[in-house]
Design brief:
Blueprint: E1 3-8, E2 11-13, E3 18-20, E4 22-26, E5 29-34, E6 40-45, E7 50-53, E8 55-60, H1 76-85, E9 88-96, H2 103-114, E10 121-122, E11 125-127, H3 133-145, E12 150-154, H4 164-177, E13 180-184, H5 188-200, H6 208-211, H7 215-232, E14 236-238, H8 244-255, E15 260-264, H9 267-270, H10 295-307, E16 312-313, H11 350-360, H12 366-380, E17 398-408, E18 427-437, E19 440-444, E20 447-448, H13 464-468
Parallel strand pairs: 1-6, 2-7, 8-9, 9-10, 9-11, 11-12, 12-13, 13-14, 14-15, 15-16
Antiparallel strand pairs: 1-4, 2-3, 4-5, 7-17, 17-18, 18-19, 19-20
Helix pairs in contact: 3-4, 4-7, 7-8
Bound molecules: dihydropyrimidine-2,4(1H,3H)-dione and zinc ion (2 copies).
Dihydropyrimidine-2,4(1H,3H)-dione binds at residues 61, 184, 240, 288-289, 316, 318, 342-343.
């Protein structure tokens, strides 16, 4: 049997091991691990490089309706292209149910936008904003059976937030179906109160985004989300955790025996609330929720990555252009922070930032990097063992990294549809140079050789990380 592709001479890393090994690929699948493989139609020499599972980014927003007159900067073509250049082979965007809309209808729209346009594989989480009896009783269970095995609920944003009773009812569907509920934890009433107070004092600059969404609002909601999950007796994912107090709540819940998956993101390691104070409204570039905090909270998030509290490191890529009337500087957003669209780009820089700041600087080892960015992502969201690791029988989704590459992050060299990067000017060591999706070389030595449409929608099973915990 001739192999289609052999990757030779590299250092392979999985979530548990780092070893020297060649990889043989046939029909898109890893079929051999060893030495002196072949013959093969093509051999890629990976000497001096790391050979890692393609990144899986389970927290990405693409083409999501974001309010009147506001347009997200990425569709599926630019969003997945950017993800690919950042070493990812699968991303999980959200499908937002708008009020009054059925989830099926929402999904039909997202699939139509994605079909034939993706450079990576994709799969969808559902955002439940209108948990009617029909949605809870019929739609959601049928969708879980069809492979949409995770949904997100919001505790904040008027029009999107669910009250506690609605969250309990949604969690109950998860308990019955085995699906996973992800929760955005911020106390909406507290935030609304603080926004009112800031406006009354005439404080409407971007910096107010941080002071109206304090740590206590996130900590309280994190505790409440896990308590609601405890009442229903269901696992829960706490997404985009930004601070030490919320981390402490997660540790306490786990000590009580609760099954909690937790995620943090690059913005909580690299940005602070001071970034929101930029001149001429530039702080709008850093408006995301929860907001960036301070150095102490950054350190707490690093600690959570190092000692194992965090299972997932995701981008929360939620891109809006800055200098654009449909983006951050929309007419209302340019006058008042509360109208600045919430979210920042980062799908392409997630892996290089964690590699450089985490692995190169000795905070986490290479296997922990792989676990946080690929293996756990696949396990939590029902893609494992087909994705997220390098093993016989797994999809040949592989990123070959030059661990010594020196780059300075410049938006001009990135591939998303935004017009800035929050990490502009950050010097990093290490970058993925060749990216392979299902055995097909998509990026070769930094150059795009794959085509849009090479990525496909992937239906998912239930979470194996949760199942493994009993
Ligand atoms: N929550 C997200 O997960 N992403 C962007 C904005 C938000 O509130
Ligand atoms: Zn969120
Ligand atoms: Zn998000």
């Amino acid at each position: 049997m001739d192999l289609d592709l052999v990757i030779s001479g590299g250092t392979v890393a999985t979530a548990s091991d780092v070893f020297s090994c060649d990889i043989g690929i046939k029909d898109g699948i890893i079929v051999q691990l060893g030495h002196d493989l072949g013959p093969a139609k093509e051999t890629i020499d990976a000497t001096g490089h790391y050979v890692l599972p393609g990144g899986i980014d389970s927290h990405v927003h693409i083409a999501q309706p974001s309010g009147e007159g506001i347009v997200m900067a990425d569709g599926f073509e630019s969003g997945t292209r950017s993800a690919l250049f950042g070493g990812n082979t699968t991303i999980l965007p959200f499908c937002l149910q708008e009020k009054g809309q059925s989830l099926r209808e929402a999904l039909t729209g997202y699939h139509a936008l994605a079909e034939g346009n993706c450079y990576t594989d994709i799969s969808f989480h559902l955002i439940v904003s209108d948990p009617t009896a029909a949605v809870l009783g019929q739609e959601l269970p049928a969708l879980v059976a069809d492979g949409y095995t995770s949904f997100k609920v919001f505790m904040t944003y008027e029009g999107l937030r669910l009250n506690d009773a609605e969250i309990l009812a949604t969690m109950d569907v998860a308990r019955r179906t085995g699906a996973l509920v992800m929760v955005h934890c911020e106390n909406e009433d507290a935030i609304a109160y603080l926004i009112g107070r800031h406006e009354a004092e005439g404080e409407v600059r971007p910096r107010a985004h941080a002071t109206t969404r304090p740590v206590a609002a996130e900590r309280e909601a994190t505790h409440r989300a896990m308590s609601l999950a405890e009442i229903v007796d269901v696992p829960v994912v706490i997404v985009h955790v930004s601070n030490g107090a919320a981390i402490e709540e997660i540790r306490r819940a786990r000590a009580r025996g609760r099954k909690v998956v937790s995620e943090t993101c690059p913005q909580y390691l690299m940005l602070t609330a001071a970034d929101l104070e930029g001149m001429d409204w530039e702080g709008a570039k850093f408006v995301c929720s929860p907001p960036p905090r301070d150095e102490t909270e950054q350190e707490a998030c690093w600690n959570g990555l190092e000692e194992g509290t965090f299972d997932l490191f995701s981008s929360d890529h939620c891109p809006f252009r800055y200098d654009d009337p449909e983006g951050k500087l929309n007419p209302k957003g340019a006058a008042n922070f509360r109208h600045i669209p919430n979210g920042i780009p980062g799908v392409e820089t997630r892996l290089p930032i964690l590699f450089s700041e985490g692995v190169v600087k000795g905070r986490i080892d290479l296997s922990r990097f792989v676990a946080l960015t690929a293996t756990n992502q696949a396990k939590v969201y029902g893609l494992y063992p087909q994705k997220g690791t390098i093993a016989i029988g797994a999809d040949a989704d592989i990123a070959i990294w030059d661990p010594t590459a020196q780059r300075t992050i410049r938006h001009a060299e990135l591939h998303d549809g935004a017009d800035y990067s929050p990490y502009e000017g950050l010097a990093v060591t290490g970058w993925p140079t060749t990216v392979i999706l299902g055995g097909k070389v998509m990026i070769r030595e930094g150059a795009l050789v794959g085509a849009k449409g090479d990525g496909a929608y992937r239906s998912r099973g239930l979470s194996s990380l949760i199942a493994a915990r009993g």
